[in-house]
Amino acid sequence: KQEVTQIPAALSVPEGENLVLNCSFTDSAIYNLQWFRQDPGKGLTSLLLIQSSQREQTSGRLNASLDKSSGRSTLYIAASQPGDSATYLCAVISNTDKLIFGTGTRLQVFP
Amino acid sequence: DAGVIQSPRHEVTEMGQEVTLRCKPISGHDYLFWYRQTMMRGLELLIYFNNNVPIDDSGMPEDRFSAKMPNASFSTLKIQPSEPRDSAVYFCASSPDVNTGELFFGEGSRLTVL
């Protein structure tokens, strides 16, 4: 059974810092991995999608890497801003077609 | 496209009442998912459809829960009878191709059962 874990559960940093969010999964047989952002009281917004054949994806100040063999992904946020404050979730899809979510990292960036 | 549309956004009901949540996926998306989110359990997949056909409903908690997708543009999640432990945010999501495509979520329906 696929299990997805995210560390840390919560993170509070000053504006401008570069930071790394971690995601680990137990079954390396995945099709893709996605990172989502969720603002309070809102739905999830897809940030980055990494196919199983890819090593990383970049979008603006965000960079996500994938190491299937070790069952890990990281989301790197450069020059963090207060507007980045949200909960970040990673999710993986394996051959069951089910998107399994991690527990999330609640990020707060203060001015 | 307006994105995935869910209704109602908020519902407060009393224990024992029937609850119906609605979802309109993005046009052209073949996959539709129903998730439930709580503080204790995070995001749980309840059921998903491919081309209007239920593929996996193993996440549906019990017989009180049922989901239908009568056509490509509409799905419902029904709880009958509702219980306080059903209180959660229910999300609907759609995807053009779950293996290679992204998942797009609605804003969710916040259900409170008193």
List its salient traits:
heterodimer; A: 111 residues; mainly beta; 6-stranded mixed β-sheet; 5-stranded antiparallel β-sheet; 11 strands; 0% helix; B: 114 residues; 7-stranded mixed β-sheet; 4-stranded antiparallel β-sheet; globular
Structure description:
Chain A has no helices and 11 strands. Chain A is an all-beta fold and 111 residues long. In chain A, the strands form 2 sheets. In chain A, strands 2, 4, 5, 9, 10 and 11 form a 6-stranded mixed beta sheet that branches. A 5-stranded antiparallel beta sheet of chain A has the order 1-3-8-7-6, with no helix packed on it. In chain A, strand 4 and strand 5 form a beta hairpin. With 114 residues, chain B is mainly beta. Helix content of chain B is 0%, strand content 54%. In chain B, strands 2, 4, 5, 6, 9, 10 and 11 form a 7-stranded mixed beta sheet that branches. In chain B, strands 1-3-8-7 form a 4-stranded antiparallel beta sheet, with no helix packed on it. In chain B, strand 4 and strand 5 form a beta hairpin. Chain B is globular. Chain B starts with a strand and ends with a strand. Chains A and B meet through strand 4, strand 5, strand 9 and strand 10 of A and strand 5 and strand 10 of B.
